Amino acid sequence: KVLKKILNKSLLEIVILRVKKASGKIPVIVNTSNKKSDDKIIQICKKNKIKYFRGDLNNVFKRTIDCCKKFNLNSFVRINADRPFLDFKLMKKMINLFLLGKYDIVTNQYPKTFPSGLACEVASSEIFIKKEKEKITRDQKEHIFNFFYKNSRNYRIYNFKDIFYYKIKKQSFSIDTIKNFLRVQKIYEKYGFNVLVNMDTKKIIKREFLKL
Fold it and tell me: Nearest to residue 127, comparing CAs of 157, 99, 100, 97?
């Protein structure tokens, strides 16, 4: 689904552009699988001069560790590519909080306090690498932060909160269905790509979802 296009831009490219508004000098890396079907993702990365890593399809936890080692990352921000309304202002705040050095993880998912499609997690690479040789569940291999949330007493975890988002936390702004995609497409067409890709997430939600 990350290859689906809106106004001649793939969903992946849209998310990358929004990420770049918060990342500053921090490199953007697309972490995908070594499966042949993901070759098209690599083509997009090469076209846009985006760094990428390819690893285990079924073990995202290991792929994350391998990516961190490859690029010598001390920490990273995890963003899924099905989030066309990624809140780059929120992401920047969470990065700055993490850089203060007090936490292993800064998240808005433990407990879940934000709507689907606006999840953001910043983490130390070290806590992942230390678990490299330990057995984890199939669920934890896919949902890479679940191990740390389950064992939260052993980690310094800060859960980011926002009153506006908490009130609408049951809504979804990710693309999980064709209906979701068509709605997002309609919104981008309404404002134009250059306007919407740079628009504040709360403004988009208020105008197009809550009609405030």
Answer: 157
State CA 96 to chain mean position distance: 16
Nearest to 19 by CA among 127, 95, 112: 95
State both tokens at 153. Answer: 């007493």
Whole-prediction pTM: 0.94
Query: What secondary structure letter does DSSP report for 28?
Result: P
Q: First vs last Cα of the chain: how many Å apart?
A: 30
The answer to whether the CB of 208 falls within 8 A of the CB of 191 is no
CA 179 to chain centre: 21
Predicted confidence pLDDT, tens digits, the chain (212 residues): 899 999 999 999 999 999 999 998 899 999 999 999 999 999 999 999 999 999 999 999 999 999 999 999 999 999 999 999 999 999 999 999 999 999 999 999 999 999 999 999 999 999 999 999 999 999 999 999 999 999 999 999 999 999 999 999 999 999 999 999 999 999 999 999 999 999 999 999 999 998 64
The closest of 33, 34, 35, 30 to 11, measured between CA atoms, is 30
User: H or E segment at 124?
Assistant: strand 121-124
Report in angstroms the alpha-carbon separations of 54 from 41, 70, 207: 10, 10, 38
Residue 39 has phi, psi (to 5 degrees) of -60, -35
Give the Cα separation of 115 and 128 in Å (integer). 26
